[in-house]
Each structure stands twice: as C-alpha cells, then as structure tokens.
Amino acid sequence: MAGSEPVSFMQQMVSLEYKLRASPVAVDFARRLCAGTITGHACPECGLVYTPPSGFCSICVVPTNTREHEVEIADRGTVTAFTIVNPIQYRGQKEREVYAVASILLDGASGTIGQQRLGDVDLDRVRMGMRVEAVWLPEEKRKDSAAMGAGLASAIHHWRPVDEPDTPLEEFAEHII
Amino acid sequence: MRDVAIVSFSQLRGDPEGGVPEVLMLVPVVLEAIEKSGVPRKQIGFTCSGSCDYLTGAPFAFVQNLAATGAWPPISESHLEMDGAWALQEAWVRLQHGDIDTALVFASGRPSNSDLREVLCLQLDPYYLMPLWPDYISLAALQAQALLARTGHTEKDLAEIVVRARRAALSNPNAEISGEFTASELLQAPYVSSPLRAHDCPPISDGAAAMVLVAGDRARDLCERPAWIRGIDHRIDAQYPGVRDLSVSPSARLAGEHAGVGRGPVEVAELAAAFSHEELILREALGLGDEVLVNPSGGALCSNPMVATGLIRIGEAFRQIHEQGRERVLAHASSGPCLQQNLVCVLEAD
Ligand SMILES: [Zn+2]
Q1: DSSP alpha helix (H) spans, chain A
Q2: CB contact under 8 A, A60 and B70
Q3: What confidence score (pLDDT) does residue A147 get?
Q4: Which of A16, A20, A59 sits opposite B118 (nearest CB)?
Q5: Interface pTM, i.e. ipTM
Q6: Which three-class secondary structure state does DSSP give residue B123?
Q7: Which of A14, A18, A63 sits opposite B57 (nearest CB)?
Q8: Which of B137, B172, B249, B346 could form a disulfide with B231 if both were Cys (CB 3.0 to 4.6 A apart)?
C-alpha cells in the first residue's frame, strides 16, 4: 500500500490488584503445617481423605469443616508422576539448574499433591513408585503462611528418597496425573 | 416451545466483607436448591453456571465452583462468564432439546477481592474507552444525567426510588440495606458522581444463588406452584456508550417485546436496576405502568451480589408466584456498562 502511513502503536499498561483472603479451612491447614503436621479432612460418607482440605467432599458434597473430620497425614509417600525441568533462562527466572517436580500420594491421603520439589536425588533415578519423605524447613524459616493459606512449600523444602521398596504400580495407578 | 418451570430457588445473603471462597459460598445454596426441588442430585440432566473470573482474580476460577455440584461421575455442564440469569437462559434452551427434564442453574460472584471501579473497566471497548479507565459509577452517572436531561425527572425522583426500595427491603432477610428514610434526608448526602449519591448506587457484596428447572408435568408433581418460563429474551445495545442515547434502553425494550411482556398484565417486576435511575429507564423500556409492583424485594439497590443479582431477580420472581400467589411476574437481568445488555424473563403460574 504505497503512500499509506506507517502503523503507529500505543502502549497500554494494565495492572489490577486483588486481595485474596484464605478461607478458615486453609488458614487452619497452614497453621498446623507450620507446626510440623500435614492434615487432611476425611469425608464422613465416602471416606476419601483430602489434603490440603477444602472444607467439603467434592464428590458427595458434604461439609467436612469440623475437627471431627480432621486426620493427620504422613509426611512420606509415593511419587506417582514427575517432570524433569530444564529451566529456560528468561528474564526473572530464578532457577539455574535442572531439577525435578513430582506428584506425591502421601500415606493416608486419597489424592496426590502436585508440583512438589524433589531433592537429594540423582535425577536419573527419579521414577514412578519411588518412596519419598519431607525435608522440613527449620521451624523458624517456615513462613507464617497462616495468613495466606499457602501450600506445602511454605514449610517443606523438598522431598527426598527413602530406603524403602517402590510402591507397586497397581497401588497408585489411579493417581497418575 | 416446551414448558419449563422453576421449582426451587436458594440464595446466600450478600456478604459485604467477603473472604469465603466461591465454592464454599456455593455448596450450601446448591444443596438447598436441589433439596427443595425434590430432584435427586445425581438425576439432574444439565448444569449451567455463571461467574466472572475477573472478579475472582484467577483464570478458570469457575472450574473449582463445579465441585459444589459433586461432578463425579462426570456431569453435563456449561459455564458462562455472565450473570446467572444467562445461565438460566442456556439451561432453558438446553431443556428445549427434549432429551432431559431437569437442570441446575447457579451463580456466584466475589467482587470483594478487587476494586470494582478498576476491574469493571475491562469490560469496556479496549481501544478507545478502557485506556481512560472510566469507572462504572461515573458511567452510570452519565446515563443518569442523560435521563434527567431528557425526561425532566429530578434527583428527588431518584431518591424516592431509593426510599421505596429500602422500605420494601425491610421484609427481605437477604437485603443488606433497608429501613425507613425520606427523600429530603437522603438528598443531604454529597454526590459520589453527579447526579448520583451513595444511596443511588448499589452495595457491593459477595454472593451466590441457585435454582432448579424442570420441564413439563414433572414440575407439577415436584412443586406445589411452579413458575413457568413463558418468555425469555436477551438483547444487546452497542458496546460503546458514546454511540448510544443513554437515556433509553432499546435492548431492554426489544427483549421485553420478544419475551412477550405485553401479552398479558404484569403484577410484579423484579428489575436488576442497580442504580436508582436505571429503574426509570427500564420501566419506560418495558412499558411498566404504576399498577406494576416493582422490586418488592428491595431489588439490586439493597443487595447486589455481582453476577448473581440477575439470577436472584428471577428467583424473587419465582417466589412471587410460588409463595405469594401471583399469576404473572417479570424478571430482568442486566450486564455491561449503562444497561448495555438486558435479559427479560416472563414467569407465569399454571
Ligand atoms: Zn465423600
């Protein structure tokens, strides 16, 4: 298009601020986590154990928000799926080295927790069925996540392998995600 | 058209403080609507919901809300980034297919997470209008100004609407604002954005609502006095407020015509008039005379859980038929700046 003017661009910066408040259930979970205990809620109807708990069973639609529904979950479990991450060095990227994240089925829970950092492990040895345990942050370093209901990473630094036989596939086949 | 009725309704009282996760607001209302309907949860044929991720502040936030329905084994469902009134319309269309008889509709909004005066700018034209960040109250004030200029209505007329709404809200346990006021005392307040004062603007609160629709004779079996959806229509005005005559609402008029409002007398109208002047525009567009009882619930001026407000208007209209013995009731929902989109629903008793 000869003679036409060049397209001009304008920048429009949009920023919105949200104030997200954690529910009492999330606050309770975070407080117990900072004290060194992973908790879950057991559904009184189907028996499924949710961790972190959401305050109700999303299958039965039954509230699980009282103390009687609370159960303690082990800080060890089974890797059901994993990803080896080669961090691309984009601006703002803090990761420099290759690392692994995993979905972990904790002993006593009915579903996996996702995006968990693995450590103290040869990445070639990471596998489905591998048994792992939590390496907790020192108590003074656990973020007081009670106010924001943050996830497990606010109190657990990473998960490391334990010297136990792998969990057979059929015991976690439903949890590969 | 297949006859479809509302057989149950449930709502959460608007919460101006907020802080309850959306799904936890929904669990009790969804459970109550289902229980009141008499339809077993697992037998519901279709589920449709309305919510707004921009309010929640997270992409795909609506997916979590589905947990309130116990969506396992998988259910047939759909979601709209709109007020729940539009979810009701989609459910009504779905029931017209004839292969299922029941539908669950629910809506939730959580405006307490953010500053609505900023967030609602994002629904505007992104090139020419949104970069100016005109907040929704200022836009509403432009519309109010245009209405007063054209019709000769006064700020006192607007205050009278608020007086009537707040008095009506005294008998509505879900209203957040209610009481006896006089126009002259309200008019002492300063402007928020001329000609609107705080009382002309809706309260902001988190909230949720749910209802169950049933087609055909099964609705009569389940519900003593179901409210039949005898007309429903949705129309949209131009997106850019600058190209419209803001003092009128052609889309509300068209929606009313196509929903068949004029085919019979209307006893009660529940209008999603969140600002006082919007009621005047909507009354004119829908041809509602003084004989029509408008917003006996107090309306959106007294409780306005964003995104659930329209569905609550339809729920209040259902109550008028189901509990108050009315024969023919109109419900209205709105979306967008300055009443840009309007949905009109006509409910009738058997
Ligand atoms: Zn359960």
Answers
A1: 24-34
A2: yes
A3: 52
A4: A16
A5: 0.84
A6: helix
A7: A18
A8: B346
Q: Is A21 in Cβ contact with B114 (below 8 Å)?
A: no
Min Cα separation B71/chain A (Å): 6
Determine contact, residues B217/B204, Cβ cutoff 8 Å.
no
* Alpha-carbon distance values, B184 to B150, B159, B197, B274 (Å): 23, 8, 13, 21
Q: What is the CATH number of domain B4-114+205-224?
A: 3.40.47.10
Contact B68 A61 (CB under 8 A): yes
Residue among A16, A25, A59 minimizing CB distance to B72:
A59
| pLDDT (tens digit per residue) in B23-80 | 999 999 999 999 999 999 999 999 999 999 999 888 999 999 999 999 999 999 999 9
pTM: 0.93
CA distances from A58 to A64, B10, B65, B337 (A): 10, 20, 10, 36
pLDDT tens profile B136-147? 999 999 999 999
B152 touches A: beta carbon within 8 Å = no
- CA quadruple B300, B305, B310, B314: dihedral sign: negative
CATH for B116-203+228-348, options being 3.40.50.80, 3.90.220.20, 3.30.1660.10, 3.40.47.10: 3.40.47.10
d(CA A126, CA B349): 65
**Chain A interface, best mutation among B10, B20, B24, B130, by max A CB count within 10 A:** B24
Where does chain B hold its CATH 3.40.47.10 domain(s)? 4-114+205-224, 116-203+228-348
Range of the domain at A126: 24-175
Q: Give me A41's structure tokens.
A: 């809620």
Question: How many domains does the structure of chain A reveal?
Answer: 1
